[in-house]
Amino acid sequence: MPVSPSASCIPTAVNIENGNTANSAVTVRSSRSHTNFQVLPVHECSPKCSFPAEVHSTNMTPVKRAPGRCPEREGLLSSINNLRKSASHKLLSGGDHEWGNSGRKRNEGGGSFDFMGKWQGGDSLALYEEESGNFLNPYISGYTTPGPAEREASKHKKANLGVMLGVYLPTIQHILGVTMFIRLAWCVGVAGIGQTFLMLFVCCFCTFLTCISVSAVATNGVVESGGAYFMISRNLGPEFGSAVGILFYLANTVATAMYLVGGVEILLLYIFPGLTIGGTEAHTDTGLFGMMSNNLRFYGTILILIEFVIVAMGVRFVQALAPISLVCVIASILACYAGGIEKTLNPVSGQGICMYGDHLLQAKMVLAEEDPISEMCNMCNFTTNPELYKRIEDAFGFDPKLDLYCKNGYPGYGSDALIQNLGHTYPKKDEYKPGHEASKGSEIFSDVDTTFFLILAIYFPAVTGIFTGTNMSGDLENPQKSIPAGTIAAQLTTSFIYFSLALVFGAAISPELLRDKYGLSLHGGMVVAGLAWPSEWVLLIGSFLSTFGAALQCLCSAPRLLQSIAKDDVIPILRPFAIVTKKNEPFYGLIITTIIAEMGILLGAMDSIAEVVDFFFLMCYAFVNIICFMHSVMGAPNWRPRFKYYHWSLSLLGTILCFFIMFSTHWDYAIVSLALCLLIYKYVEWKGAKKEWGDGIRGLALSTAQYSLMKIPERDPHPKNWRPQLLILHSMPWSKELVDIRYLNLINFAAQLKAGKGLTMVVSFIRGDPGLEEDLKTAHQVKSRMENDMQQSRLRGFAKTLLYNEDQITGSLNALIQSIGIGGLRPNTLLLSWPTQMDAQESDSEYQTFTSKLLAGALNGMALVVAKGITEFPSKVKLHGYLDVYWIVRDGGLCVLITFLLRQSRVWRHCKIRIVAVAGHHENNAKIKAQLKNYIYQLRIDAEVIVTELSDPELSKTAFERTLLMEERTKMLRHINQKRSNDLSISSAGYKTPNTRPMSPLASPDNNVKSPTSDNKSESLADSNSVNEAESKSVDKSLDNDVESSEEKSLSRGDTASVATSPNEHPSETHRVAFNSSEGGINDDTEKAKRLKALDRKKVHKMHGAIRLNEVILEHSSESQLVLFSLPRPPTTKEMVDDYMHYLEVISDKLKRVLFVRGTGGEVITTDS
């Protein structure tokens, strides 16, 4: 067609990647019709466009359209959107890409067309082309195709920082903080060089091992924004990731407060003492509400506001300021090295300190407030300073044995200071040396009880900060390359600085001056600053800027960490902090971080804040080491880090070191930190969004489960280890609108047995074809609903769905029961609900599937538990009354065990257990009761024992009539089944509610067969006298005979058939059938008498026993909450199921809730411990 595009029609083409337009044409092949379309540039249409661009197709005809629309383009876009998933699937296959850089699209015939439609020849990889079905494409495209959120996130600008600016320098700046300048010298003076080196080794070795673990984890995949949190959450799961991530966020936030409070301390004590509110006298008022603490709070708040403004300007601005601060810090460190050399070369240049014996006097004892510190040696004698004598006498009492002298506090490397500082000195609080109390206003003393673990706790924050570069991963150009190199290099650099500075301080400064924590002997000067060369101001300014820079790094990284946690949407309350500005700055996170940091500043003491920071950092370090250890030991296929210099033993040692430091310094803080981590973990597990990140905890659980299963032998467990492993089978119609109360109550009942601590598997049978996508979708929906129902019922287990075709239910059942489970962990107890309807016309009716399940479970050696009246079983209502167990046959005590487990549930907890033993008329009831009471006592189960006698040797007329009714009904149903199988074809499209034909052996047949009552049990037929004495006595033993054996107990012939009640009976058993004369009933008394006489005496005996047992049960348990008794042995074939069903109906008639239980003999309850 000719084209006359207007000015508003812009030539474009379609881009298959995102459904938008691009500036090239494409060739599209439909994966279903295999039709090739050459699409020339399609014009963007507007209401002004009258004609479309020309489109050529092998099977297209011109299409008329309304003005202003482009149906060809719209249809093409729709087709391309449908093909997107197919294209993404083919991108994963080997060889040429489906849409490659060459701009060619492979053709069905082995060649390809380029973008202009020109043939490009054959494709040597045509053999590997596959049809891309819609079944797999959505799954794959979800992992390969970026979604809208990912595309939107990718639009945010990254800083693209390298190793130096992104990791190395920020990490060094963060690590080299205030603690190094104001606490390292004091640690050397107290612990000595030897134990200080040990303390530094523990701290630095811990962080070094963690750096190795970080490098391995960070190079095992893409590390996105969030750094340490991202690594922990993706490897330990959202619960641990969120818990440790929040603790690590708090660590960085509170560390901001620690650095700023330390900076204010330097500012007020050493740089500008005149700024102190309350004067210099306030410097020693360091209580919780002391004046110095208030100064720290006030000036710390001002500094946090300044840093807030700087960080709000953006990460680029922060990183631009970082080198300036870092240069000053490095200059300060170099000044210390130079100062040691200068003091060695020129010993007289060192500042003097005044000593009285072994007491180091405070400067205010010797000098007036206005005197310079350089006058210390001139004033440290009684001649030039006569007032000093009185002050010493008032403080210590004059001792002529003690000399007053001036000592060089900075003797340099050439002195014996190194030897003197080798040993440790750990004074208690208010002591100047161990065991000697100090005069607090006159000499230098300890303000805390010093120990090795105390200095370890105080100094450990100085080595933290190794995750600074990792936290900036979202702004790194190549995180996998930058993080390992920058982090390890920064850690080694700072470790060298710490060890070398400790050696310099110990070799160049006298031990007495090193123990002067606050510089009181130097008139409030910083001890380390006195060593610096060329001027103390180099170190004072550098140390202050180090604190300011470290706080800046913490305040910059903490909001990004919080934003990463919030972005994962694991904790709903954090969602507002996932928002970032146009410059990718987490401004809301910055605000809340500043508020929390301000709360830390209000503590008003750096040492107190440092002790809190320790544990937050150590928790994070420990879990990173756990990740590396776990992956290394498991050897998961996806564990392929590019960083090769790691080993599981190093990670394990790092983990041990982290927890050792935590519990050795402050065990109470460690417990609080772990408890806080556990609380966050449980909160996320309870309220958090469910995320599947393929984390290592799941992999660890899988490996542990595999190991445990391999240790369990695949044979019957010892009776002490036996527990009910439930398999719940149901095949009920599913609907989105309706809920089957029978299924839900069965799930709730299984949950009430959870005290057994066994495996639970719920399997739903759905008629359908596994090859049809619609049936698979239905099965998936059913499984999701089952899992939700199990979660609501707090039933822990597994849900499965099984699709079966027509007439496959029996084979599917046997295959399922034989194959379900793994190793020694497989279900051993089949839990079923008694059917409420019976339909013998369809193979997958409720009745037929029930009997198939029961027979399959019995044939495969499973214990059987059948709940009758399941609609009346409670789910949450607490019941009071009796749980009656009828001890008919010795089945290993499974009935008693089930009752005991039920009583552990809050639903049945207030019910009492009664064991009712059924004895024959010739047995000793007293002896049976005594033996049973002793047995129950040995089982450690509280229960009341009752013995009842079942003795009625005469066969009642009721037994004959009900047996006759049972046989008539069985013949009729077989006739109907045979006719149906010849004349009807059964539809296989889904589950169809059956046309039910309810049945009941208790219903009255018609007027010709009179309905008997329980009161006529003494009445007998005329021919009953022909039954001999032995047959009569065997009636009460006939409840557990097989149908084929007259010597065995006879009630074991059936299956739980679908039953329902007449209107005056229990509502859960609806629709009973009465067979009248038109349905093959008995037409006259003569015919009836003949049939009665011809009945099988074995069946009559069984029916008589069932009637008598029902009478006994109703006599004792008509008001009981639940009745349990042994399920007779099921028949081996389905031909005898109907009779078996009638016997069970008769036994359980008029009972509200019944539980049939049959064990296999292997689940014997032992009396052993």
Keywords:
single chain, 1169 residues, alpha/beta, Amino acid/polyamine transporter I, 3 domains, ten-stranded mixed sheet, 24 strands, 9% strand, elongated, Amino acid permease domain-containing protein, SLC12A_fam
Task: Explain the layout of strands and helices.
Blueprint: E1 10-14, E2 21-22, E3 26-29, E4 36-39, E5 42-44, E6 56-57, H1 71-90, E7 105-106, E8 111-113, E9 119-122, H2 137-144, H3 148-154, H4 163-175, H5 178-182, H6 184-218, H7 228-271, H8 291-312, H9 315-345, E10 352-356, E11 359-360, H10 363-366, H11 376-379, H12 387-396, E12 404-408, H13 417-420, E13 431-433, E14 436-437, H14 452-459, H15 468-471, H16 479-508, H17 511-514, H18 536-567, H19 587-601, H20 606-634, H21 648-665, H22 667-687, H23 696-711, E15 726-730, H24 741-752, E16 760-767, H25 773-792, E17 798-804, H26 809-819, E18 829-833, H27 846-859, E19 863-868, E20 880-887, H28 894-903, E21 910-919, H29 925-938, E22 944-949, H30 957-983, H31 1029-1033, H32 1085-1093, H33 1097-1117, E23 1122-1126, H34 1137-1147, E24 1154-1158
Parallel strand pairs: 15-16, 15-18, 16-17, 18-19, 20-21, 20-23, 21-22, 23-24
Antiparallel strand pairs: 1-2, 1-5, 3-4, 4-6, 7-8, 8-9, 10-11, 10-12, 13-14, 19-24
- The overall pLDDT, averaged over residues, is 75
CATH topology of the largest domain: Amino acid/polyamine transporter I
What's the helical proportion of residues? Answer: 40-55%
| Record field, number of beta strands | 24
Q: What's the architecture of the largest domain, going by CATH?
A: Up-down Bundle
Q: Can you list the strand order of the major beta sheet?
A: 17-16-15-18-19-24-23-20-21-22
> What structural class results from the helix and strand content?
alpha/beta
- Radius of gyration equals 43 Å
Low-confidence stretches: 1-69, 83-110, 112-125, 132-148, 984-1083
Major sheet: 10 strands, mixed
